[in-house]
Amino acid sequence: MNPRTAFVTGAAGFIGSRVVRALSSRGIHVKAGIHRQNGVDGIAGLKGVEPVSADILDRNSLMKVLKGVDLLFHFAALVDSHTSRENLLRINVEGTRNVWSCAAAAGVRGALYCSSAAVYGLLARAHQPISEEIMPRAVEPYGYSKLLGEQAALEIAGSSGLPTVVIRPVAVFGPGQHTPFGAQLRAAAFSRILLADGFQSKRFSFVHVEDVAEAAAQLMLSPPGGNRTFNIAVDEPILFEDAFQAYLRVLSRAGRAYTRARMLARVSEKLHGLPWLSRWIRRVGGDRLAFALWQPGFDMTYSSKKLLGTSFQFTWNRFEDILETCAE
What is the per-residue pLDDT across 287-326, written as a single tens digit (0 to 9) for each? Predict the structure, then answer.
């Protein structure tokens, strides 16, 4: 396959904008799907990039944009579990079904769906890194909507013959991170003590946003064909204590704007060795004073052996280097 044109939905988003850059750097003409005109800032000026207005729920809009497109990259999604279940299903499932139906009708030659590791659910007793062969068990609204989105894409792929790749990124870090939890964490780092009850001595998986984008581009531009699913995670998870020490080192090198965050981080470090005091602070101060780092499922780890078997190599392997990009 020698693709000339790609269409990226969610092209103004955290991951989608990096996918646009990855494709542009490879000489691919990119139709960058955006909802609002002010969404072009992150992709403005890139060679061969054509911002286009696209609504994934509007079939006419999609058929117009998909004319002459070789490859589809679907990154448009709702990521906030606090929005209504109906809205999540409408965008993440029906929107995906509409995109794949239109892509198949337009003669697109390959498509990629950005799912999420959230599709695996909490998977009780998941002591080993989770591989793609593990049956997903999503129960919370966002993960469930992404799992149904996968199924919708693969159902149409199976009936139409449209080769489809599914990627499942884990906790994605990088500059401009704006997922709901990422935004909460960034705000909390500047205003509250960070508590990690339940996280000590546990590991978690992570990935840099640029590696997600590079993996998506590589998988689609040199595919062996067929429908395939890949976890996207640095293959060596990190121990929470090591991650927190990396966080402290990054803050120590950061500018004056991070003075308050440095102070709060040092207080947090001391409290991690005093769980009884952490519990007291949380009970007395509540969410106004403390922010709980540990969330259900954050201590699960994921395998990327299948992705690494395609010859893909991660550029960002060190958690400290990744955090450094977030503090710039």
Answer: 888 888 777 777 789 999 999 999 999 999 999 999 999 8
CATH code: domain 5-174+205-235+302-316 is: 3.40.50.720
pLDDT of residue 126: 65
- Residues shown for the chain: 328
Residue in the block written with tokens 């969410």: 287
Domain boundaries, the chain: 5-174+205-235+302-316
| Mean of the per-residue pLDDT values of the chain | 89
Three-state secondary structure along the chain?
A: CCCCEEEEECCCCCCHHHHHHHHHHCCCEEEEEECCHHHHHHHCCCCCEEEEECCCCCHHHHHHHHCCCCEEEECCCCCCCCCCHHHHHHHHHHHHHHHHHHHHHHCCCEEEEECCHHHHCCCCCCCCCECCCCCCCCCCHHHHHHHHHHHHHHHHHHHHCCCEEEEEECCEECCCCCCHHHHHHHHHHCCCEEECCCCCCCEECCEEHHHHHHHHHHHHHCCCCCCEEEEECCCCCEEHHHHHHHHHHHHHHCCHHHHHHHHHHHHHHHHHCCHHHHHHHHHHHHHHHEEECCCCCCCCCECCHHHHCCCCCCCCCCHHHHHHHHCC
Contact 157, 163 (CB under 8 A): yes
Distance CA 17, CA 11 (A): 5
pLDDT of res. 322? 93
pLDDT, residue 299, reads 79
pLDDT for the residue numbered 279: 81
Average pLDDT value for residue range 267-273: 86
Distance between CA 230 and CA 297 in Å, rounded? Answer: 19
pLDDT value of position 275: 80
